[in-house]
Fold each of these.
Amino acid sequence: MRKIITGILLTIIFNVSYSNEIISGFKMPESVAEGPDGSIYLSEIGERDKDKDGKITKIDKNGKVSTVAEGLYDPKGIVFYNDKLYITDRDAVIEVNLDGSWGVYAGTMSFPKTPVFLNDIDVSENGDLYVTDTGDFDSGGLVFLIEKSGKVTVMFEGNAKIKAPNGILPIADSKLLIVDWGGDLLEANLKNNKIKKIADGFDGGDGLAIKNGTIYISSWKEGKVYEFKNGKSKVILEGFKAAADIALSKDKTHLIIPDMKAGTVTIHPLK
Ligand SMILES: [Ca+2]
Ligand SMILES: [Ca+2]
């Protein structure tokens, strides 16, 4: 009897928690990160190549939407480190405080190669930032390292393997996952700077997330989210207009997906 009741309860919880929550009304949302306060912080490009209409928006735990910082160009990748947000904004990286004040963290001139299309950003435990430049979306892409000292170096240059890097994610053992716009999922070993392809077929690859060894990859072009585990990939979500840069919630129970063309943010419970 006890087992049956538990079963019924689990069924109810399962049904309630396994529905997507969708928040709408955003202008070209590109990337998301959950903050220390449990709010979701979102970059909104506004109109592409239109200056100063980009902004950072906060969705609090009750779903209330407010503007954190504005006057940006085309903000994209967004990540938290020590309660500050680091965001790529076309050809620079900016730092945003939670009170909304912001400044340039790595300006265009501090890059050893002129950035063309800064895209994703992520951070190592020691505060080093990894930043992708998707180049012309065909080739010429770069991966930059921005050290805490502010020094910017090129980690990887466009080559036969890295063409137009988009999503980037540090993982265990000094490795980085990179998804290329052309569809390849790459693993870079930071100990020897070797890059290997571990999967492909994610055309228009945008964001990356990882939970217990399962990698989640969004395809902007296909409007899909894939999972990749044990050497195999499968679609777990589809029907987006442009699934942009995804992120996991801090407790890793939910995947957060901004849809750039639909102007929505979907919060999807993971099994
Ligand atoms: Ca803009
Ligand atoms: Ca991106």
Amino acid sequence: MQAVIMAGGKGTRLVELTKDIIPKPLAPVCGKPILEWQLQKLKENGIRDVILIIGHLGEKIKEHFGDGSLFGMNLSYIEETEPLGTAGALFYAKEKLRDGPFWLILGDVLFDIDMKRMEAFHEAQRALATLLVHPNSHPYDSDLIVKNDAGRVLAFDSKHNVRQGWYDNCVNAGLYLLDKSFCDLVPAPQKTDLEKGLLSKLVTQGAAVYAYATPEYVKDVGTVERIRQAEQEWGDGSAARRNLKRKQRAVFLDRDGTVNIDKGLICKPEQLELEPCAAAAIKLLNRSGRLAIIVTNQPVVARGLCDIETVEEIHRKLKTLLGNEGAYVDDIIYCPHHPDKGFPEENVAYKIPCHCRKPDIGMIEACVAKFNIDLRQSWLIGDRTVDVQTGKNAGVRTILLETGAAGQDGKYEAEPDLICSNLLEAAEYIAVTEGE
Ligand SMILES: [Zn+2]
């Protein structure tokens, strides 16, 4: 696999660090240029063949890295005589690229990810382009990606749009896998914006553009403030710990009665309202470096009370409300099934015995595979005995909450490891006793 790094940007927002003597990609993070970290991470993922697009002060980059042999890399350069945006230089890169997919990386993105996972996703979807996406703590003022359940990108939702409805917290992170044929879309060396100029057109035409969501560390370090934050996360190892090659700690959260107020079966977005401290609790989990994943039984689908699309809309509302308060969940997994047939108005296709309905552990097993989770270091928090039983069955520790059903449903005998008055108290317990 080859990679192209767009290292030609002018970096006016970093001039305090670069003094306009060095180009932006040579700005230091923890004592090493951003670009050197990028090359190191590529090398760790087996990618040594890299094409660097250079521009303003590009000769300094050439001086520092040469042909790459001192860094164990094979580097070649394309010099922009005028700025060509985030994609214009693909016109020139094409002749250096082999057939098949290649990585495209923006020059101010610091990352530590298991690249093989995204490559496998790109291949499985037979995508023309795959964007790395993740949730962030301020979706309300971010450009968002609208995708379907399979990850197919349906639209780009600019932060300048007035958003009427509920939305997914899904933000483009600046790492791409593109097929070489993508370069044909740039017919001449001209200033071209990757997202606005190429990808959004392709999406409108129905091309195979996909979004790969991951909780791993990817950060735009285009401002001095963001470099300072990154130095902390990079320096204390918290960035590296999130790489999915390493075992992850997760906190599985029940939904109704735990994150949102228990109002019985919820089958309309209007019925969903957050528990008062849920956003603060989830924000704490986000900051503690743990995955926050909702696992919920939603037999509303099997009972014919609403369809899958409505459940998704309810979850978009949940993500919007959390995002408004700076919190996000890494995933929401739900079981739409129910085992008992024979009710009026039921949706027969979902009236099946399944392996995902709690207290069975299919949803947790799916998360373990997806996020490489260490169950012994993980927790499940819920308000019902079925949550406690699920945790026992899966081999994670459990916290029963006094919100929602408060464990009074009387269905299972399993004892929780701890009882807390609400989700915030539970999150504080985990973060304080087990650290970050
Ligand atoms: Zn199920």
Amino acid sequence: MDKKREQLAFYEMDIVKDMMGLMGGRALRGIMSNFFTSRIYAGKVGLFLVKNYLEATIEKGERRALIITDAFTERFAGNVTKYLDLMQMDYKIWSGAEPEAPLNTIEEGVKICEEFKPKVLIAIGGGSVMDTAKAAWVLYEKPDVELESLSPFDELGLRAKAKLICIPTTTGTGSEVTKAIVIRDDETGRKFATMNPELTPDIAILDPEFVVGLPKELTAYTGMDALTHAIEGYVSVWKNDFSDGSSLQAVKMVFEWLPKSIEDLTDLEAREKMLVAACLAGMSFGNSQAALAHSLGHSMGSVLRTHHGLSVGMALPYTIEFNCTECEETAAQYSELAGLIGIREKDDVATSMKFAEAIRELMVKIGSPTSFKEAGVKKKDFKAGLEKLVEFAMMDSSLTMNPRNTDSNELRKLYEYMFDGKKIDF
Ligand SMILES: NC(=O)c1ccc[n+]([C@@H]2O[C@H](COP(=O)([O-])OP(=O)(O)OC[C@H]3O[C@@H](n4cnc5c(N)ncnc54)[C@H](O)[C@@H]3O)[C@@H](O)[C@H]2O)c1
Ligand SMILES: [Fe+2]
């Protein structure tokens, strides 16, 4: 608990405690309904518009861009550099980002920024690349910032040195529009999320050219991440009317377009729609926060190294079953979402349960595992990691945003049910 307190220092502030009614939660609504997003260009013309924007905002002799990618997404850099060439922008490509944004790679990124002094950082990649770029950018701008203890209420004064542009190459995280960064601490192996409104990128470009070749598995997993953001954003204690609107459209779009983008990997319309759905889901949870499925999922990523979308997606239906029986208002919210896909049972709890089932059916259809067993996690590895899973999930900031209060015994039970694929009955 001490560690959790340390990490969530800002939750100790009386005003925040009051707002959250630790954890009655509802008090938070209405008090804080800020809404932050990047400027979004969706479609093929985005890169051209960004060229105009950079030309207008960066002086001629100062035009230096650092393109941040990983070893795979480096191949997309040429799609961007052709526009930079047109405006005689000096650029460097750094492809050192790694899955789950480990701290040591972020430090490497900062060094390159300090040497090259870019006026704009352009991240091309999935959530890991975008989070690496966001974190390196913060430390380039403000070397004294401690990422883990950033609060959403700090005034950082970013953007004195550079702007940040994000181009997603996966269709799930929404990091291109969020104020969040998820980082892996190399020493402990723990993933932690940190957030501040100023971390919201300046521009997000949603261009299907960057996701057209996304393989089936990643399409499925990242699509489940988007669905989890949309649903958790709709029930989190920090939800608000702005995030609600984004969630409603994102849930509708994921149910319609995710199966299509898996059935036909060349369906460009489905790809484009999933890019938009993931971005809308990011706009939702980025302004309302993720909840229990993300606490469980971050911990799975830390301990078992499972993909983020696979992890949170697997946890999602269990958390719906867990939350809906204890929180009347939350059951009504799940019911509203279920109504979008034509589900209506005798009451809100039954409807929520059916909704959880429909999500599992979607996962089966797209090939995303619904239990640890299905994901191929061995019982002995699960047992060996269980206490760490629980410990890290307890420390995760998303837990504070869940509508149902919980403890380590329940988290342990949730994981055990998830191992076997058993519906939650407690
Ligand atoms: N900051 C936020 O708001 C936020 C939100 C959700 C998730 N996240 C974080 O994002 C990370 C997950 O990101 P992700 O799911 O996008 O995956 P990722 O960025 O970790 O990429 C996974 C793998 O897919 C490859 N890849 C990327 N684009 C590809 C493409 N078009 N075709 C083929 N392969 C491609 C990458 O090279 C990598 O090997 C996690 O660390 C998660 O915690 C952050
Ligand atoms: Fe996520």
Amino acid sequence: MEAGSRLITSTLKEISERYDIPLSTLKLNAKILRELNLISYGTASNPRCAELSDLGRFILDLVKADYLNGVDRLAGSSRMGLRELEARIKALRRVVVVMVADAGSGHLGSSLSAIDIIATLYLARMRHDPGNPGWEERDRFLLGKGHAAPALYAVLAECGYFPRAELSGLRRLGGLLQGHPEARIPGVEVSSGSLGQCLSVANGMALSAKLSGAECRVYVLLGDGELDEGQVWEAAMTAARFGLDNLVVFVDRNGFQLSGPTERVKPLEPLVEKWRAFGWMVLEIDGNSPEEILRALDESDAVEGRPTVILAWTSKGGGLALETAAQAD
Ligand SMILES: Cc1ncc(C[n+]2csc(CCOP(=O)(O)OP(=O)(O)O)c2C)c(N)n1
């Protein structure tokens, strides 16, 4: 808490509004901080103001030092409230539509079904530093379904990995941003687009982090049609074998692949049971709901000894119809 000598109630109200945390929760936390002698307020000499105690100041200095050392580079965005996150994702959807329309080609539906997951990870969850994309301790994100590159590019530009102006050059000859992610692009961990390969790469990253004791987590987004690739299941077995609990896979379960509905092309169900049988913790959510995505990520943080897969039910082109309807109102 940034206590200084501000009124406790106005400080808590401001935090409550900005970060969408109930005031009652904050009040309870303030009481706990006071009991721990980290802050003081409501004293006889100063009945209304909140102040850091010497111990509180000492701990704050330690936290700041940690921050400056790059241990926690979440930036302001990670503490973003849900409403702000949803608003930013809505704006990003528009950016993606314009990018693909300008380019005259690109996988629009695939990008829109995936954007809530990608944006929630980068804007509200992952530890990363756009100013230092190679930061060793960063969390990693790999886009298995590389054809959803417009969504990844929009989010990376939003984070500041490269200028937003690059987005209008999507798929242009000589441009930075081509149809599939390339490792030369700032913020892109691995070139992808050939379906089925990313989980194997992610295994290597997650295993390496475990062996070196690094705190980082590795996130992968796979398409549901991508699960047709046998390599995915080889990699799934490997991840379970090595107990990669620092690895989280999202499956963008939009029900479609290039040539039709997944259940018609090559049935995937029962998918929960399949992943479970491969030794994974399995969660199922609405993948177009940032709130559910964040909740599932919280759950995955607590899983020990095995990797987590989040089967994220989405709609291909998600958000478009809703926005059109809202504008007509
Ligand atoms: C190895 C490989 N085979 C084929 C393709 C061609 N391809 C591009 S997108 C796509 C469909 C992928 O479907 P899905 O993973 O469900 O993604 P989404 O429905 O979200 O677009 C295919 C087959 C490819 N990129 N890589």
